[in-house]
Amino acid sequence: MARITLNNIRHSYLPNPKSDDDYALQRVHLDWDDGGAYALLGPSGCGKTTLLNIISGLLTPSEGQLLFDDQEMTSLEPDARNIAQVFQFPVIYDTMTVRENLSFPLRNRGVDEAAIATRVAEIATMLELDSMLDKKAAGLTPDNKQKISLGRGLVRDDVNVIMFDEPLTVIDPHLKWKLRSKLKELHQKVKRTMIYVTHDQTEALTFADQVVVMNFGQVLQVGTPIELFERPAHTFVGHFIGSPGMNVVPASVVDGQVQVAGQVIDTASDLTNLRQGSVEVGVRPEFVRFADAGIAGTVETVMDVGRHTVVKVRLEGIEQIINAIVDEGDSIPDGPVHLQFDAAQTRLYEDGWVVAETQG
Ligand code: ADP
Ligand code: MG
Q1: Shared-domain flag, residues 122 and 266
Q2: Above 90 in pLDDT, residue 190?
Q3: Co-location of 201 and 98 in the same domain
Q4: CB 44 less than 6 A from any atom of ligand 1
Q5: What is the DSSP string of 197-213?
Q6: What does the pLDDT average to over 347-351?
Q7: Ligand 1 close to Cβ of residue 48 (< 6 A)
Q8: What's the mean pLDDT when you consider all of the chain?
Q9: Over residues 199-225, mean pLDDT
Q10: Contacts of 110 (CB under 8 A, 6+ apart)
Q11: Which atom of ligand 1 is nearest to the CA of 13?
Q12: What distance in angstroms lies between residue 259's CA and the mean position of ligand 2's atoms?
């Protein structure tokens, strides 16, 4: 096992990168502790696979260092790194049986046959592959093939880290939740460092203790699911996480006061070092209330999403929709309304990044 450090990693697929835009990873600095369950969450194209491939050694970064337990790994061959990587699509030997597929990584390293048999049986049980151990992999469903792939990643106990790159892509929706909780359970059992890459917030938030949120080749925030919900460091994080995500509303600071659609509002942010001018206000739908006074708007749609209702309000004077969550049992407003934001949960964002909060 090992602690993984990414030290100012940059990567460009271009021969002569110039601007930041030429980099698939702009500058990544991360520490992953030994034994943790991590998720790397971000939209397609943001650089997740590039980052994984740098850790596993399939790719050498243009700049920066990769360290395991403070030891330089940046240009070491993949085989020398002791990493298991599970890819988006099953990587298995079709002509081998399930048992042979699962045994292969161990046999390859000269583990003795008795130990292989025990370990393979264990993994097969965890993944519910017992009944098909002697079947050829070729005839199996994509779900089961991907379970073999997962098994091949999990079977070795000498790996530093197991990385999963969107492993549930080919899995049937009704099996997804099951495998997802299985992976969480496996992490608790094996206590190995696991990095789970996905564009799906539910997968990331249910699997990981710490989530790294990326966009545009940058890490925007590292935090627990609760931290990401309560204190998004960047408007993208607030918007990407939550359903619906955080409202991001144009605002201005005039004479030390924040205004949204002409209304002065209270926020948690410290305004002392702020430029005068345009900023954004972020507030989650959970912290938007209907009141007698406040920001004026009109209810546009009402959507029942199970335990609560999402009300879309069009603000007066600016082209902006605000989502508000109304709890079950509370009355659903209609027509012209006024909105208030819970000040403690309302923050300013400048160029996308959160403004520091007032102390005390
Ligand atoms: P993700 O896994 O988050 O979807 P990737 O790491 O695959 O993102 O891609 C990051 C960026 O790098 C994208 O703009 C993608 O088009 C580009 N990219 C990925 N692989 C290559 C490659 N082999 N050659 C050139 N560009 C690539
Ligand atoms: Mg990818």
Answers
A1: no
A2: no
A3: yes
A4: yes
A5: EES-HHHHHHH-SEEEE
A6: 95
A7: yes
A8: 93
A9: 95
A10: none
A11: 25
A12: 40
Q: Which residues, including other chains, have CB under 8 Å from residue 39's CB and lie 6 or more apart?
A: 195, 196, 197, 198, 203, 204, 205, 207, 208, 210, 211, 212
* Within a domain: 190: yes
Residue 243 in domain: no
Give the integer Cα–Cα distance in Å for 148 and 113. Answer: 19
Residue 133 and residue 280 in one domain: no
Ligand 1 within 6 A of CB of 50 = yes
Residue 344's domain comprises: 248-354
Tell me which of 12, 16, 50 to substitute to probe ligand 1's pocket, judged by most ligand atoms within 8 Å of the beta carbon.
Answer: 50
24 lines ligand 1 (CB under 6 A): yes
| Per-residue pLDDT reduced to its tens digit, 290-327 | 999 999 999 999 999 888 999 999 999 888 999 999 99
Q: What is the DSSP letter of 46?
A: S
Whole-number Å distance between alpha carbons of 36 and 3:
9
Q: Say which residues have a Cβ less than 8 Å from residue 99's Cβ, sequence separation at least 6.
A: 120, 124, 133, 134
The bound ligand whose nearest atom lies closest to the alpha carbon of 216 is: 1
Which residue has its alpha carbon closest to ligand 1 atom 26? 13
pLDDT at 255: 85
Concatenate the DSSP letters of all residues of 221-245 into one string.
Answer: EEE-HHHHHH--SBHHHHHHSBTTB
Ligand 1, closest atom to CA 50?
Answer: 6
- CB 213 less than 6 A from any atom of ligand 1: no
Q: Which ligand is nearest to the CA of 87?
A: 2
Name the closest ligand to CA 47: 1
Structural domains of the chain, count:
2
In a domain, 241, yes or no: no
* Boundary residue ending a domain (235, 262, 281): 235
Kindly state if the Cβ of 263 falls inside 6 Å of ligand 1: no
For the whole prediction, is pTM greater than 0.90? yes
Residues 283 and 141 in one domain: no
Integer Cα distance of 268 and 296 in angstroms: 21
Ligand nearest to the CA of 42: 1
Give residue 159's identity as a one-letter amino acid code.
V
160 φ/ψ angles, rounded to the nearest 5 degrees: -75, -35
CA of 50 to the centre of ligand 1 (A): 6
Average the pLDDT over 1-30 and give the result: 94
